[in-house]
Design a protein that fits this description.
Elements: H1 4-22, H2 31-41, H3 48-59, H4 64-85, E1 95-96, E2 99-100, H5 102-106, H6 108-126, H7 129-132, H8 137-151, H9 156-165, H10 173-183, H11 185-198, H12 203-230, H13 233-236, H14 242-245, H15 251-255, H16 257-273, H17 283-294
Antiparallel strand pairs: 1-2
Amino acid sequence: MQPLEDYLEQQRQRVEVSLDQCLPTPDSYPPLLMEAMRYSVFAGGKRLRPILTLAAAEAVGGDAERALPAASALEYIHTYSMIHDDLPAMDDDDYRRGKLTNHKVYGDAMAILAGDALLTHAFEILSSPPLTECFPAALLQQVSYRVARASGSFGMIGGQVMDIVSEGKQVPLEVLEYIHRHKTAALLTAAVTVGGLLGGGTPEQVQDLERYGHDVGWAFQIADDLLDVEGDAMTIGKQVGRDAVLEKVTYPGLLGVEPSRQRATELMQQGIAALSDFGPCAERLRQIASYIVSRNV
């Protein structure tokens, strides 16, 4: 088995090709919108969510290639959320992945519209021929439902709202957990379960993947909180210490650095344990869980 770093890079390149193929061409009209959409989609990134989709499809013995369009759709949703997160009315960030944020290049209005377009385009992809010609309509309906649920008011948006309204306040641990489980873990969970569904996983396998995604996605956000405290801006590609400036509620802020690191490790171990009935095909998912907690970018 090739090293995880090589696997992640290989899969990242695979996703990059799909992202380009699934987006409108750069010369589509209106060109400024297409440019703004592509600017953020191709501004770099680990492509962790689509890679998790592909790894989950492989974990249940499926053909990851057939899941690529759905994996790309999830990355469009993730990109839209970052464009909107960076806006002055939200986190007001100037840099993302070492590059100027979308609104700093194209202005607030175009950034909002580029994010809107990416979100809408994601659901267009989920109902497009590359998927409808390969999978039953009932299965794709379930995929779309899970992605919508994870992206909307009961998922990512709900978590973002609670993140905003909790700024500058003393909130209980339950609220912080809600924010993490919805703002970040929900979409990561969708990425994994979509891969399991499109890979032909059994209901039991999909349920185990859902548990894995929930715990690993939660650990991912705690790791992000820690990076904002301990990370290096040049390495991460954005300002550090922003959580403290914005008075955001975070695990390190509420519990301290070491207890936060311990909690992330516990969640990672729980996520791996959820795959106990899977064989060697799920090894990449196990490795990615460990990588998420130990990463420095």
